[in-house]
Amino acid sequence: MLGRRCPRNYTYTGYETDKLIANFKDSHYKNGAQRWNSNSRIPFEDMLTDWMELDLISETVLKESLVVREREDEESMKEYITARDSYETAKAQMPTQVFKLYQIHLTKAEHDQVNRDGHDSVHKQALKLDMNLRKNDTGAIAKEAFDLGYYTHVSNITAKDYEDVFEVGNIGPEENIERISDMYSCSVGDIVEDEAGNKKVVASMGFKDVA
Known about the structure:
Blueprint: H1 17-25, E1 27-30, E2 33-36, H2 45-53, H3 59-91, E3 97-104, H4 108-117, H5 123-134, H6 138-147, E4 151-159, H7 162-171, E5 177-179, E6 191-193, E7 199-202, E8 207-209
Antiparallel strand pairs: 1-2, 3-4, 3-6, 4-5, 6-7, 7-8
Helix pairs in contact: 2-3, 5-6
């Protein structure tokens, strides 16, 4: 489903034309749909529509890609449900540990700059948007943002594993969350660190190593 157009540049993704063209060059057409080079997944409708309006893809390719994406998402959901059922059985036997949750937050000044000059004018916002929209190399993008100090340690979450952290970070229980700073619901681009120091980033599907 399409979101709202960015009021500054009138694109759905909020990207400027040069960024959209660069992203398009990182994609290819295969098996009836436009796909990312890195993982062969189909971009969100926002990205595809921006590409179409720049005449980078046709309306036919847009529509075909959305149909294929819906079918592949349904297949992925079936696989996820099967895996989840097995996971829930194993989860009951897992010990709990305390995970650190890191998120990217913008200051008021940075929000104002994004609204005035666009997403790419604030580097950490550009990286955050890349993780949400491009779905390319999420782990590498997260590592770059973490190394640059863009993440804030917002909470400690008591959970059994990374998937459990995501669940607690969205629906609780609240007693399992020790809030250290402002925290929004756990979402794509957030980094979770276990007690051994291993970091994973929330991706569009599951988690990826921060590396």
